[in-house]
Amino acid sequence: MRKPRKRSFAELVSENKSQLLKDRAAMEKIEMRLEEKRLGKAE
């Protein structure tokens, strides 16, 4: 087994982003949390 080459930070970020975009449920959960934070600060 050969050692996989180290990925650059940019590659990891883009990979993460694409996985999140595929995972709509995760995106919606994050959006809900952000919305709650915004509403909490507004009061």
Automatic annotation (TrEMBL):
One Pfam family from the record: Fur_reg_FbpB
InterPro entries registered for this protein in UniProt: SenN/SenS (IPR025004)
Protein name as catalogued: FbpB family small basic protein
Native source species: Neobacillus niacini
Organism lineage string: Bacteria, Bacillati, Bacillota, Bacilli, Bacillales
